[in-house]
């Protein structure tokens, strides 16, 4: 069953989302060669506390950290680690899900450390564009897989890979709710979208093949061919006037 949220629930998710968006904007100031992914996690955890946000990752299936930080061929779910040190040219993905007064927002962004390749920049640009195209289909009357198909089309038009093994999800009081939102598929399938549905949409995109595996640490998802991967995520609400993006600060970026 897909939970439908009322205005006041969506307002709380929006508050969580805007606080999270501020943190994921400000974190770029500390991202320099030499910093460890554990230091990034500690900095974010402290910011979450200051803003009365509660991390939903910490404690989830035994996960011990507030965030996921994934570098280069790590796609998602990178475990913060004091021995993982950022270097010039790295593509870093930071993913945080947190609740404010019981309601969640889930968000991920890509960051460039120093000078990165043109390839990496292009990959991230297309991944963000794919997310926007997916969000633009999150409209009353459309079907769920219209979102999936739009994401896949944008990614494959550029010759990149769509990771199949992980997906977006409904979100609300819980980090993960129904439905599962695939990043690929044919349009016109699945439930009809209605006002009050809230989704976390998160394309995971590879420069090479889309096959991934889980590292020996039990969490970190990596590309099999060691190719570079990008991941961005926004939490959105479907409203009668279109999709509303809850994890963006700029007013003109919040509607599509
Ligand atoms: N934020 C991730 C998601 O989009 C989940 C991270 S939870 C963790 O679903 F426990 F894996 F860290
Ligand atoms: Co998510």
Give the tally of β-strands.
15
How many structural domains can be distinguished in the coordinates? Answer: 1
* CATH homologous superfamily caption: Creatinase/methionine aminopeptidase superfamily
Strand coverage percent: 25-35%
Query: Kindly state the mean pLDDT as a whole number?
Result: 98
Structural class: alpha+beta
Alpha carbon gyration radius: 17 Å
In whole angstroms, the N-to-C terminal distance is: 26 Å
Instruction: Give me the oligomer status.
Output: single chain
Helix content: 25-40%
Can you characterise this structure?
This protein is of the alpha+beta class and 256 residues long. It has a single domain, classed as Creatinase/methionine aminopeptidase superfamily (Creatine Amidinohydrolase), CATH 3.90.230. 26% of the residues lie in helices and 25% in strands. The strands form 4 sheets. It has a 5-stranded antiparallel beta sheet. Strands 1, 2, 4 and 5 form a 4-stranded antiparallel beta sheet that branches. A 3-stranded antiparallel beta sheet has the order 3-12-11, with no helix packed on it. A hairpin with a 6-residue loop joins strand 11 and strand 12. Helix 3 runs antiparallel to helix 4. The longest helix is centred in the N-terminal third of the chain and has 20 residues. It binds 2-amino-4-trifluoromethylsulfanyl-butyric acid and cobalt (II) ion (CO). 2-amino-4-trifluoromethylsulfanyl-butyric acid binds next to strand 4.
């Amino acid at each position: 069953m897909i939970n439908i949220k009322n205005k006041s629930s969506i307002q709380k998710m929006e508050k969580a989302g805007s606080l999270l968006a501020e943190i994921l904007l400000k974190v770029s100031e500390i991202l320099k060669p030499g910093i460890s992914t554990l230091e990034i996690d500690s900095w974010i955890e402290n910011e979450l506390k200051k803003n009365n946000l509660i991390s939903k990752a910490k404690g989830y299936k035994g996960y011990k950290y507030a965030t996921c930080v994934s570098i280069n061929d790590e796609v998602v779910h990178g475990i913060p680690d004091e021995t993982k040190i950022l270097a010039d040219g790295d593509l870093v993905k930071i993913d945080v899900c947190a609740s404010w007064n019981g309601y969640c927002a889930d968000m991920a962004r890509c960051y460039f450390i120093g000078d990165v390749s043109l390839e990496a920049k292009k990959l991230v640009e297309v991944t963000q564009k794919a997310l926007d195209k997916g969000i633009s289909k999150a409209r009353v009357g459309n079907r769920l897989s219209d979102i999936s198909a739009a994401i896949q089309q944008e990614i494959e038009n550029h010759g990149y890979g769509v990771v199949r093994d992980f997906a977006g999800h409904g979100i609300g009081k819980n980090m993960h709710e129904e439905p599962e939102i695939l990043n690929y598929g044919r349009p016109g399938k699945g439930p009809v979208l209605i006002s009050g549905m809230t989704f976390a949409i998160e394309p995971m995109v590879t420069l090479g093949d889309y096959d991934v595996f889980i590292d020996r640490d039990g969490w970190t998802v990596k590309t099999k061919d060691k190719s570079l991967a990008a991941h961005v995520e926004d939490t959105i609400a479907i409203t009668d006037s279109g999709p509303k993006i809850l994890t963006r600060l700029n007013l003109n970026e919040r509607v599509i």
